[in-house]
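A quick aside before the break. I want you to see a complete sequence-to-structure record at least once, exactly as it would be stored in a machine-readable document. Don't worry about memorizing anything.
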Amino acid sequence: ARSLLVVISFALVCIAIVALARGIALGEVLLLSVAVAIAAMPAGLPAAVTVVLAIGMERIVANRCWAAACP
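That is the input. The structure line, written in tokens, reads:
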């Protein structure tokens, strides 16, 4: 379990560095990091799905794309 934690931590740091270097906002990088950390554990799958769906809904709302108005 401890070695899995080390591998996950290393992967999260690498993902965060690459995402920030590509210009992705810090808030999105933090959400991505949390989602990856949760998804790395099998018991965290439902929480990871919830995070991904919430991010998708935020983008839909930000674009004001409701079901009746979507192209």
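Two observations worth writing down. The mean pLDDT is 80. Helices lie at 2-21, 26-40, 45-62. We'll return to this after the break.
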